[in-house]
Amino acid sequence: MNTKLLFTLICVAISFLSLAQKKEMQTITESDLKAHLEFIASDNLQGRDFFTEAPGLNITADYLKAQCAKMGLKPGVEGYFQKFELEAVTPDPDQTVMRLKDGSGNVSYETKNIFSLGGPAKNDTVIGDVVFAGFGWYNEDTKYNDTKDLDLKDKIVLVMTRTLEQSKEGAEPEMETEMKKMSRAMMGGAKAIVLVSDPMNPNPEYIESIRKYATGGSLTLKGAKSSLIIPIRLIFGTEELADKMLEASGKTLAGLQKEILESESPKSFSVNDLTAEVKLIKSNETVEGKNVVAVIEGSDPVLKNECIVFTSHYDHLGIDGEGGIYNGADDNGTGTVAMLEIAEAFQSMKRKPKRSIVFAWVTGEEKGLLGSDYYSQNPIFPMENTLADINLDMVGRSAEKELEVIDSESKSLAGPNGMYIVSGKQSTELMKISDEVCEDLGLVPSDELTKAFLTRSDYYHFYKNGVPILGLSTGLHEDYHKITDEIEKIDFHKMKRVTQYAFSVAYKVANQNKRLVVDKPVQ
Description:
- It is built from 14 helices and 18 strands.
- By secondary structure, it is an alpha/beta fold.
- It folds into two domains: about 25-90 and about 285-510, Zn peptidases (Aminopeptidase, 3-Layer(aba) Sandwich), CATH 3.40.630; about 95-280, Glucose Oxidase, domain 1.
- The strands form two sheets. Strands 1, 2, 9, 12, 13, 14, 15, 16, 17 and 18 form a ten-stranded mixed β-sheet that branches. An eight-stranded mixed β-sheet has the order 4-3-11-6-7-8-10-5, with helices on both faces.
């Protein structure tokens, strides 16, 4: 065969593949995305969480299974359900109590208006002397240090939210800041932190959002090799409780805060003749988790043993204390139904891609990336044969216009053409393919969320195993983790384009003759 003829045949083959890709991509439609999402994000599913009155999470799993069967997708595991056991720990607020005792052991104050994070899974009682540590903060630049010369060992430490600088500015509280305080206290040997809103900047909505999360209970993989349980207890209390803890010193929390801000220096001290006793009562049970896993087998007899994995989490936050439903239309109804459309596009192809495609709708993301953790330990294809993970999490919203400057700290909502791609950039080749597809579809990619979000969604368990990742999102918005995350706010045109992008990238990677090159190891 002469060179000219060979070149012509290669061009025809490439053209045929491109036309096939574009033809199948057209099966991804706004109307289908909306139809699926109207079910997934409906009130009837009660927020797709564990422990709701209606079994919305299981109903969603059944719906996904039924759609896979209807499309004729091969089960990734028997019956499509990859089942695993979870350990559930739920606090009992009616029996949780904090008591303050004087030097003679007499109870001077008692309250049930507390809740906690961290600590062991079983019932727990914490007893310790009390110290006040201001904001509990250490500033590496100014060397301001609330815990300098303060003995924290075996103590219960009273601190305010925020930092000196944040309090002065009236800045929004950040859980990351409070976690750093907790880490420092833990290294100092403290038993617990009692965290109270700083009086100048009370933020009841922030505290209430944490309360809903904390009192909703926690889940961990049963028999997990590593535990996410935090050894120190983080106890959230009220200003009234703080003033009672400080009463013997003749101080109030508001007064101490004023002193700190005016002097810009710590006012920390041990509270004499005061012991705090905290009883944290919890219930324990075993519950079942279900990943929904389906496979489209590759057409090449050798390359079909390699795969591209699509992931998205189908769980959400359930119901709030007032009966409001977290329907999670964007988080993550959009990613869930986008994968259904991607699966349909691949399944409609007469000739399937050379490599296999795995679809894993995972559960328990909101509880700590649990379903994807289990899948990573029990993959359908070995991790070394998994070429990439494409994860879709919140892919259905748009700001009115494109952002001039992307703020990685605020995780701003992308504009009509914008899309965030979280990636460890292990594969230059994969990123080049991604850029080419974005250009074809008129999408503007940004990696500004990578640093802040690399461990925050299900792609993380692939990344840590050396699998190149593309974590797709259109950004955060004011409805994130609120009952206002409803279907009426979804930009279905934008969502379709992101879905088509994901299909196109996987199509190209799955049909390459050579394996995707990984040129950067996990850091």
